[in-house]
Amino acid sequence: MLKNLKPIVIGGQEFLPLIEGGKGISVSNGESSGAWSATGGIGTFSGVNADTRDASGNIIPQLYFGKTRRERHHELIQHSISGGIYQAKVARDLAGPKARIHMNILWEMGAAETILHGVLEGAKGLINGITCGAGMPYKISEICAHYRVHYLPIVSSARAFRALWKRAYHKFSDWLGAVVYEDPWLAGGHNGLSNSEDPLKPEDPYPRVAELRAQMNEFGLQHVPIVMAGGVWYLRDWAKWLDNPEIGPIAFQFGTRPLLTQESPISMAWKKRLLELKAGDVYLNRFSPTGFYSSAVRNPFLAELQGRSERQIAYSTTPMGDHTAELAIGARGRKVYVTPEGKTHAEEWIKAGFANAMRTPDNTLIFVTQAAEDQIVKDQIDCMGCLSACGFSNWSQNEAGTTGKKADPRSFCIQKTLQEISHSDRIDDQLMFAGHNAYKFASDPFYANGFIPTVKQLVERIAIGD
Predict the structure, then answer these.
(1) Helices (H), 252-296
(2) What span, in angstroms and rounded, lies between the C-alpha atoms of 407 and 410?
(3) CATH code at 8-279+441-463
(4) At what angle do helices 69-95 and 30-38 cross, to 10 degrees?
(5) Rounded to an integer, what distance in angstroms lies between the CA atom of residue 119 and that of residue 124?
(6) pTM of model > 0.90
(7) CB-based contact 44:81 (threshold 8 Å)
(8) Among 338, 370, 336, which Cα is nearest to 353's?
(9) Residue 327 DSSP SS3
(10) Runs of H (alpha helix) within 149-267
(11) Of 145, 182, 419, 454, whose CB has the highest number of CB atoms within 10 Å?
(12) Rounded mean pLDDT of 180-191?
């Protein structure tokens, strides 16, 4: 065990300060989280569209039969609740009654509150804590207090935690299990970069976490652990954080490293790809329909999205300013006005086979192939409301069922692609989330010759600093 690696206390019990980060749509499941919790750490399964299995152990496909988005949205809610309950039971059976099991949800996922109530009601006594990010989850404290489970908000700044505390959390302080600081530059999945932060200029997490601790101390939360998430690989690199009064009680969350374990449910193709990554292969982008930045592996899927945005010009419906050049678009040849330079680009893209112009909410046109347009439109029509508000399809869970904006063809159906990559070996044409340190799989001697450890072996390795 690494010197000064002290247990954290949550709910009056001590746990190894090593936490498995929850990864959405079946990537962190009951098997992986149960195995992690069995080591004495804290395992986290994902409550985002979790899988359910039948009596024979086969995954039950999440199919949608509703004719409207609203009807499919209600089907998604039922899938999510049954999946969350199922995975909680699997995790608890593997970890045992004294282990600590957490579930992760995204506050901006569709019907987050309804799903959380449904899972916690149906899995009473199985789940000990809820981690929650991707938004400002004010209500998470009240919901968790009602079910007597701890809540662990995910934030990327002291300012964000202050807002949550002042508005809601101070009323339910007894159930604040820990505060997860997720590095907005290095973490995998969706990242909490604010408008004032430069995505190309990563900041040192130490002063940011020290500021968070100072803020928590001001609220009398000296005893509440902070969980450092994002960019954590070797614990020896974090030695100055241990037993440090400026940081206080600290735990470390691992999201990417648990992907490469025997218990990890991802495909072998995905696992092999992780062993091949190089520095820079994980790309911070803003294509997600959530509107958040996200970190994912560079592959043809991201390249296609990048190409859509690069083949983009501004337009107006009447001559305006330097928009003086006529351009006929669509099957009916409707005229729009672009700059002369924009028209030249458009003609080059059309000649290259990207002949279909699609309008965006920002009064721009992107140029794609006929096949790409057909797929984009189909995916938008098939929307099942997996987010509280979706830029890609313009779905919103409000009464109107829409964001009020045009659907954005520069984005993608996130539920579709994450379901596909988590249940198949199609890794090149789907979104592959990963933290920015994933390239270390290739150079870490622990994984030499393609070695894939069990969760127990991984946790033991991490605990000694490696």
Answers:
(1) 268-274
(2) 9
(3) 3.20.20.70
(4) 30
(5) 8
(6) yes
(7) no
(8) 370
(9) strand
(10) 158-167, 205-218
(11) 182
(12) 92
Q: How far apart are CA 44 and CA 358, in angstroms?
A: 40
Structure tokens at 299: 């592959």
User: Would you say 117 and 143 are in contact if contact means Cβ atoms under 8 Å apart?
Assistant: yes
3-state secondary structure of 71: helix
**Computed over its alpha carbons, how large is the radius of gyration of the chain?**
23
The pair of three-digit structure tokens given for residue 287, joined into one six-digit string = 């294509």
pLDDT (0 to 100) of residue 2:
85
Name the DSSP letter for residue 334. E
Q: What is the pLDDT of residues 382-398, one digit of tens each?
A: 999 999 999 999 999 99
Q: How far is CA 101 from CA 37, 96, 129, 222, in A?
A: 7, 10, 7, 23
Q: Are 346 and 337 in contact (CB under 8 A)?
A: no
Q: Six-digit token pair at 73?
A: 């949205």
Pick from 44, 107, 295, 306: nearest CA to 191:
295
- Secondary structure (DSSP) of 125-167: TT--EEEEESS--TTHHHHHHHHT-EEEEEESSHHHHHHHHHH
d(CA 316, CA 323): 7
In the sheet that holds 189-191, the strands lie side by side as: 189-191, 293-297, 282-285
End-to-end CA distance of the chain: 10
Distance CA 75, CA 63 (A): 8
* Dihedral class, residue 230 (left if φ above 0, else alpha if ψ from -120 to 50, else beta): left
Vertex 403 angle, CA 402 and 406, to 5°: 95
455-463 vs 30-38: helix axis angle to the nearest 10? 50
Q: What tokens appear for 182 in the block?
A: 């997720």
pLDDT band of residue 310 (cuts 50, 70, 90) is very high
Cα maximum dimension of the chain: 71
3-state secondary structure of 452: coil
Amino acid at 179: V
8 A C-beta contact, residue 158 and residue 133: no
Does the pLDDT of residue 1 top 90, yes or no?
A: no
Residue 150 — φ and ψ, nearest 5°?
Answer: -80, 150
Inter-CA distances, 196 with 135, 157, 199, 209, 387, Å: 16, 12, 10, 18, 25
pLDDT of residue 197: 86
Residues 129 and 116 sit within 8 Å (Cβ to Cβ): no
Task: Report whether pLDDT(133) > 90.
Answer: no
Helix (H, G, I), strand (E, B) or coil at 26: coil
Residue spans of the domains in the chain: they are 8-279+441-463, 300-422
What the block records as the tokens of 208 is 């940011």
Provide the token pair at 118: 């449904």
Distance, in Å, from the CA atom of 48 to the CA atom of 111, rounded to the nearest integer, reads: 11
The CA-based angle 180-73-284, given to 5 degrees, is 40
